[in-house]
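User: Please run a holo structure prediction.
Assistant: Happy to. Please share the sequence and the ligand.
User: Here you go; the ligand is pyridoxal-5'-phosphate.
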Amino acid sequence: MQNHEKKLLVTVPLLPPLEEFVLYLEDIWKRKWITNNGHYHQLLESALCEFLEVPYISLFTNGTLPIMVALQALRITGEVITTPYSFVATTHSLWWNGIKPVFVDVDLRTGNIDPNKIEAAITPKTTAIMPVHVYGSPCDTEHIQRIADTYGLKVIYDAAHAFGVKENGHSILTSGDMSTLSFHATKVYNTIEGGALVCHDEKTKHRIDYLKNFGFADETTVIAPGINGKMDEIRSAYGLLELKYIDSSIAKRKQIADMYRDKLKNIPGLTFFDSDPNVTYNYSYFPIFIDEQLFGRSRDSLYFYLQKNNIYGRRYFYPLISDSPTYKGLPSATKENLPNARKLSESVICLPMSSELETADVEHICYTIKNH
Ligand SMILES: *Cc1c(COP(=O)(O)O)cnc(C)c1O
């Protein structure tokens, strides 16, 4: 049990079988069409609409561009209310659009933006709310929508962690005005690099599609200042193939999450989030939170101790986005404004989670934590 040679990483990409991918490559070579809304691009868009149960989806070359384009498509300006407890791309996308991020604290039970604290942050300049479904657990979308409707605000969900997540049987990707996805290699579903933007109607999908293609409406007409966000044929085919294996991969992750919950319960000073019986999760991450006093070791001390035992968790999300040099001077970035986000950020470790983990690996991780 002590000598575990295998290096256990926080994520291992789900790779489709090489032989199957080669067949797709041969077909792409025959077609001689390698990007710009090709055959596989179109197939993947319809396959994802069906799999995710969303009406419209546009593919992108990564998960940051759909956030940038969503902000452009909805003409968001001024200030946007968002969370400091996320990956930096969320806030950077606002910054690149000349929008001022306004940080609101999170709920300690989920890590998601606390809707009860949103209204106090609204000013005459606020135009939108950009929450994140952190670790794939759904935000309180109803409450957020009520606030948005009251104040005439748009809602863009950064759903980078929420591929396939459902609440009461419905996709959470249809909440708000738009939802963005990341298909980066570290995510549950990947196209190596990639991403997508989900919207509700054909006209908006059309607008998104020309914005991600330099603003071209046809061969010669540039109707808007677009950008290049296009996904190519090779990664579209990879994504199509990946879809065949995603259900079994998520089922395997569920088993691992259940094992973690069982083996790590009742350890003083170690907690994890409750799961909501109405939610179908994708088990993208397994965050644990360490209370130094009760656990007898600091979070960082445990983090490095695990590394010595070949267990490479990650401190997602530490430090807070609001602590980075670009944002720390903002009025909403103060310590007093974000106590819950700070508490989670300073106590979190995301444990290894992938369909490659074996029972013995999970046992080794739990044993190491228990006997630290
Ligand atoms: C991964 C991630 C992104 C960015 O996606 P990329 O595909 O890496 O550009 C955005 N937001 C969140 C919350 C993420 O985890």
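The two ends are 14 Å apart (CA to CA).
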